[in-house]
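seq as requested:
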Amino acid sequence: MIDYYAMLCPMARPKLNLVLSGEQRSELNRLVKAPSTPQKIVWRARIALLAAEGKDNDEIAAELDTSRVTVGLWRQRVLDLGLAGLEEVPRPGRPVQVDNARVRKVLTEVVQPPKGRARWSCRSMARHSGLSPSTVQRLWAANDLKPHRTRTFKLSNDSQLEAKFWDIIGLYLDPPARAVVLCCDEKSQCQALERTQPGLPLGQGHIATRTHDYYRHGTVTLFAALNYLNGKILAERAPRHRHQEWLKFLRKIDAEVSAELEVHLILDNYATHKHPRVLGWLAKRPRFKLHFTPTSASWLNLVERFFRDLSQDVVLPGSFSSVPDLVTAIWSYLEERTLKPKRYEWRAEGRVVLEKLRRARQALAQPFNVNKDISETEH
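C-alpha cells:
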C-alpha cells in the first residue's frame, strides 16, 4: 500500500526521478493545451512534465507558485499510478442516496417554473423538492439541464425561403463574372455614449472597467456596402435612415463602381429598400440586381458580420462626447480596414444549414418531452 503520509514528513524518503514514455509525454502536453481540460488536471500535468525534466520539488513549487509538499504528492502519484494518478482518489464514505420520486420531481418540473417566476433556481427548486441546493445542481448538471441559460432565435416563415437562400448562397459560392457583390444594410441608431467617469485600462491582474451609466449625445446612421470579393467597405453616414438617405447611398455606389460591372446587392426586406422612388431609380439602371434575404434571416447578409465587429471594436467600448467624435472613431476604423481589408467568406454547406432549419421547425411543431428515463441517474 502506498504510504502518502510519509511524503508529508520532514524526513521523507528522497524523491525518485520521474521518467515518462513518449506517449505519456504527448498525452500530458495534450491535456495542458486542450481548452476543455479542467484546470486542476492542467496544473497536475505541468507538475509531472516539469518533474520529468529533472527539476526538483523546490524548483517546481517556485515555478508553479505552490508548496513543495503538494508537488511531492503529485510526483509520487504519477510515479506509482502513471497518468491515472492525475485524477483524485475517490473519497471514503457511503454514496449519497436520493429518493427517486424527488429526483424525478427535480428533473421533470424544472420546465414548469413557479407562479410569477420565469425559471427555477437551485435554491428555489431545493425548497420545492426537499433536497439540498448542491444535490439539485448535481442532478441538473448530470442531465444537462441549464435553466439559468437561454438562447435567442428566430425562424424564418418566408414561403420562398429556400429559393432566396440558394440565390444568395449562389452569389457567395460562385460570384458572377464582371460583377461586384455588395452586402448592403444600414446600422441605425449608433449612439454616441459618454461614460460618466473614465474607466481603468486593462492591466496584468485586472480587467478593464467602465461605468454602467452614461450621457447620451445623439445618434448617427451608417449605411454600408461590404464588397464580398475583396472585403472593402463603402460607407456613408446620415442622421436618419429613410428612403431619401438610401437613395443617396445608391447613387454613391453607382458613381464609385465601374460602369462596366454589374452590381449585385444583397438586402433585407426593410421598407426603405423597396420604396417606389427607390425602385423607380433602379428600374432605369438595369445593371443593379437585387437579392433579398428571407424575412427574419438577416444572418445571410455578411455585412451583419462587419456591423458586429464595428460594434464590439468601436461603438460599444468607446466613450464619445458628441456625435462627431463617434463618427471620427468609425471613420478611423474604416480607413484602417481599407488598408488591410478582411474578407468574410461563406463556408457553411447550404444543405446542412437548411436541414438545421427543418429540424428546428419540427421541434417547434411538436410538444417537447421533458420526462427522461432516470432509472440509471447517479444519485
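The longest strand covers residues 179-195.
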